[in-house]
Q: What sequence folds into this?
């Protein structure tokens, strides 16, 4: 592909795990709004996201809200607040609503002790109706976990584990402060399988410091040897203005857009060649995996964890920095753990900011989600769902602006990405984003 096109379409844009994106949330939405929304949203299943913002070490590449701790006391204090928040939120919800998905992110959720994990499960059971077959997933750092802790998660009920790999090359691991052998990782995967965890996902990152195409492909080959059900291959997001510890990474060791594009393409070809199916821009799954099935059914979704099979319209965020999504809009909790714990201890829902959605926002969000999941959206379907609120998305002038580079097609109803254009879907989606030029938000590279 033309290098100029790659460079131009690799400019920084959002990842679109929400629309509008988090930088546009504001303090005009707070606790009172959230309470009203929780009470008004009385039907349908719920999804829960629980954030554990602690790690045993700080990986330099990490873009998550987390911090390194050397003692367990701060974790215990935080978990007390998290249990309290769960109970508080539940009082505003209609009783009996079923929870169909629970996701633990971090940080490193497996830092939680088995005893505290049992308490957390009891709190969830006391305040929510966990549906039979609920998908319960957890993110795992395989270098700081053992069989006892993994067994505790099995007892908790996890059905899927997402194991961080990043890259197995020692030079890369040193640069990102994450030494991790293939043997460690493989052992954790085997323990999870022996415990009966039915789905294993491996996370790989391209564009890391010192990383070459050959290093990435070796990491992929080693990962494929563990026969995961899913693979996520993310582009490293270098945002030191947001995450100051990323300044410890020498930018001179990072690949430019042309090399990143070549890495992403070579990696995808290798994974597809092993029999996996492509799921959007950065996920892959075995053909019989539920994510591949949802894609074929046209029911794949996208939320703050990336691509998902979770169909719940209400996502309740729990824990510091977590984001919730209700039909009325988004809310985000206080990020600082101390302030979060203080707010909960005072009996207040720890909402820091949010965004109330208009009908036009919902129409744009639907079009962007369809682009990100299925590389296409239908004008007729948008108008049927949102009426005149879909006018901005359906603008002839807006659609025509994409035609020059051959990345999209339009047949009078369906706006679709061409195969050549699909790697740049984030950039195309950003053209529909009415807020992208508002404020001072900065984003990571599109490739």
A:
């Amino acid at each position: 592909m033309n290098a100029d096109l790659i460079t131009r379409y690799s400019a920084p844009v959002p990842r679109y795990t929400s629309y509008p994106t988090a930088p546009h949330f504001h303090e005009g939405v707070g606790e009172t709004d959230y309470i009203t929304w929780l009470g008004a949203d009385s039907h349908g299943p719920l999804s829960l996201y629980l954030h554990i913002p602690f790690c045993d070490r700080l990986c330099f590449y990490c873009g998550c809200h987390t911090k390194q701790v050397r003692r367990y006391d701060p974790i215990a204090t935080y978990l007390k607040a998290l249990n309290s928040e769960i109970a508080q939120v539940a009082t505003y919800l209609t009783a009996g609503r079923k929870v169909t998905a629970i996701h633990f992110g971090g940080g490193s959720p497996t830092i939680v002790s088995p005893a505290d994990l049992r308490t957390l499960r009891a709190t969830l059971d006391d305040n929510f109706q966990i549906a039979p077959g609920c998908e319960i997933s957890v993110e795992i750092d395989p270098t700081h976990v053992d069989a006892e802790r993994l067994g505790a998660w099995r007892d908790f009920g996890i059905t899927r584990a997402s194991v961080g790999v990043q890259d197995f090359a020692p030079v890369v691991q040193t640069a990102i402060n994450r030494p991790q052998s293939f043997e460690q990782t493989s052992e954790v995967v085997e323990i999870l399988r022996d415990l009966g965890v039915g789905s294993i996902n491996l996370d790989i990152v391209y564009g890391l410091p010192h990383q070459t195409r050959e290093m990435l492909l070796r990491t992929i080959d080693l990962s494929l040897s563990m026969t995961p059900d899913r693979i996520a291959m993310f582009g490293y997001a270098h945002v030191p203005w947001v995450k100051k510890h990323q300044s410890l990474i020498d930018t001179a060791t990072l690949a430019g857009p042309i090399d990143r594009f070549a890495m992403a393409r070579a990696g995808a070809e290798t994974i597809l060649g092993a029999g996996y199916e492509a799921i959007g821009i950065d996920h892959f799954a075995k053909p019989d995996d539920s994510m591949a099935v949802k894609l074929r059914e046209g029911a794949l979704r996208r939320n703050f964890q990336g691509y998902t099979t979770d169909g719940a319209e209400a996502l309740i965020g729990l824990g510091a920095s977590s984001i919730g999504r209700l039909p009325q809009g988004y809310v985000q909790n206080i990020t600082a753990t101390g302030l979060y714990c203080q707010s909960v201890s005072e009996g207040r829902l720890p909402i820091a900011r949010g965004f109330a959605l208009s009908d036009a926002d919902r129409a744009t969000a639907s079009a962007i989600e369809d682009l990100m999941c299925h590389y296409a959206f239908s004008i007729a379907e948008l108008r049927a769902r949102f009426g005149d609120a879909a006018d901005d998305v359906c603008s002839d002038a807006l659609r025509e602006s994409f035609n020059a580079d051959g990345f999209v097609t339009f047949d009078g109803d369906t706006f679709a990405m061409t195969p050549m254009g699909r790697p740049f879907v984030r950039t195309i989606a950003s053209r529909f984003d009415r807020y992208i030029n508002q404020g001072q938000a900065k984003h990571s590279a599109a490739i």
About this structure: The mean pLDDT is 94. The chain has two domains: 13-318, 358-437.
